[in-house]
Design brief:
The chain is built from no helices and 2 strands. With 43 residues, the protein is mostly loops.
Length: 43
């Protein structure tokens, strides 16, 4: 008997919306909620 395993692509939901930093007004589109310019965290 042969067993076939099919891998399903894992979908990860990450917030990649553009976020404007309230500190330096820089915009970032990364999943991490940290400003690239000044390091301010979104949380």
């Amino acid at each position: 008997m042969t067993t076939t395993v099919t891998e399903r692509p894992t979908e990860r939901t990450t917030d990649r919306a553009t976020w404007s930093c309230p500190n330096c007004q820089g915009e970032t589109t990364t999943a991490k909620k940290r400003c690239r310019d000044c390091g301010t965290s979104r949380w």
